[in-house]
Amino acid sequence: MFAYTIRRVISGILLLVVMSVVTFYLFYASSSTPERFACGPKCTPTQLDTTKRALGYDEPTIVQWGKFAKGFVAGREFPDDEKLRKAAPEQVVECPRGCLGYSYGYSKPVNTLIKDKLPISVSLAISAFVIWIAGGVLLGITAALFKGRLIDKAIVGLSLLAFAFPTFFIGLLLLKFVAIRWGIVELPKYSDFTDNPFLWVSGLILPAITLALVYMAGYIRMTRAFVLETMSEDYIRTARAKGLTRRVVIGKHTLRAVLTPLVTLSGLDLAGLLGGAIITETVFNFNGVGKLSFTAVQRYDLPLIVGIVLLLASFVIVANIVVDLLYAVIDPRVRLG
Amino acid sequence: MSSSTAQLSAEPAQGGQPGDPLLVVKDLRVHFPTADGVVKAVDGLSYTLERGKTLGIVGESGSGKSVSSSAIMGLFHGSNAQLSGQIVLDGTDILTLREDEMRRLRGRDVAMIFQDPLSALHPYFTVGSQIIEAYRVHQSVSKKVARRRAIDLLDRVGIPQPDRRVDDYPHQFSGGMRQRAMIAMGLVNDPSMLIADEPTTALDVTVQAQILDLLQDLQREFNSAVIIITHDLGVVAEMTDDTLVMYGGRAVEYGKTSEILTHPEMPYTWGLLSSVPEVTGDTSAKLIPIPGSPPSLLNPPSGCHFHPRCAFRDKVPGDLCRTTTPELAPGGRGSSHLKRCHLADPESIYQTEVLPEIAPDLVDLLAEENT
Questions:
Q1: Complex ipTM, two decimals?
Q2: Domains of chain A by start residue, with CATH
Q3: Do A233 and B119 touch (CB under 8 A)?
């Protein structure tokens, strides 16, 4: 299992390298003059040229990638151009090892930006995850146990409704009524967990519910299907034939089998969300990674784009490895090697 | 052996006196309402079974043999199946029991061994824990005692190194070992009645023989009544005292196994016998499959359910096979051999038309005996 993990980590790193190269080339495929966005609307050709050199966009793509890679491994200084650095030494930014680049749009190193925004997105993702797993699994099991009855139809119907409504609509609805009109909760606002856990929760609750609803809808239906499928398995009939109570047959034998696919799916879904939820963050004005990535693309901010792509990709890769390792723990039939 | 003779008219036992049969099934019907109509999976089935005896239930897939035994396990309690009739186990009509009362019976008084033990054992729990669970649900003993019991039983059913294998998962067992573990699980509470639903279907032939031997040994040891559901007439011949042939949810022939196999009186049973290959038999003997496919239980054929596939329906005067359902009644071989067929003299048809086709050498043998 150790060798397997090492192999998976190495292949994950290779994948990240490839993805960074691809991102660089895709970026230049989309716009011929990305520096125009950094330079502004009233940009003279000379200024444009200076900006281009300051951003390092004048060099061949592969050289730029090489500098990025070197910066990540050994650290680097900005601007790239040595003459510019000498001309304005007070503006030189030191970017230590692990450097993802320097965002000229924000005038901050990408690492700092991500470090600032990541807690917001992670908080949102994790709180939503808790809600959607708890709600989705419980309601899904309930629906399966009452299959064909009114409760089942109500749960399935409502989950379809939640699935059909766009996130921004649900978000605005909750914001308008629950927070503003009825004042049940405070206006959603991010506060640091370490400062005040209570404020952290109360500020997160509406965005988390908004984000969770659509996932929950999917998980209700999946859990319901998994439970029903498992309940028709031969080993469940065996469990009943042993004289076990319904509680044990469902709570132990059925759920144990349903756990496996749920772990896989939820692990990957959570990883996808850690990198930010653009719509939810926008509706509730949470400046997380989602919003950051949106701005980065809007402004043609290459270093920021690359940084966020790699962040997201590493979440997904790590989640994949973790899920596969968990699988070996959950399912005794799986042997990694 | 003779005491196991079929008694169609057996009264349900009251209180389970020693002389009474352990199991009396009377006019059992299991119907499933579906969107397309009522599926009559079992339609008026009756039989009795005494302690220490073995009944073989034979029939094609969909003949109702598994459904009828699931009904004995009470597995339809709480489902939408409609059950009627009586299943009297040791003096108690289990169809009148509530689910929680039935649950206490299940696995303790009547246990079931399923076919395909790989899918019938939970893949995520060890073999031992599944046996321990089956034991502890009915006995208030500590985990340690139950584990001891599980190891004993695994040893008894012939699992090598049971104290180590007890912690293995089902997928670490071979097919035959899984079925042994399944049997150990079925026997863990010393049930008075054991139902084996095609216990050897998923196993290879050498293992089949071992499992059958094991079942026979254990039956003698525990003095359980056993129902073996199978479509393998070899298993029936080897293992059972009585045989019940089912077709389309009904019993079509019922009697002592030795009697049914040597003097079958129902064309469907002939068909089953014709389909059995014989290893030592004449290679020129034909394997004759039964034409057609099993009847739809949603919309069964009129009259005798078997008539559309029956090669001998012309021998019955009039249109009787198509219009009238024959009763399950004694034929020409005495009151203990019941058949559901309109044929007036099935014995002679069997001897002259069926037997020469499927076992020519046997005909010569019989002819020699008769002279």
A1: 0.84
A2: 2-105 (no CATH), 112-298 (1.10.3720.10)
A3: yes
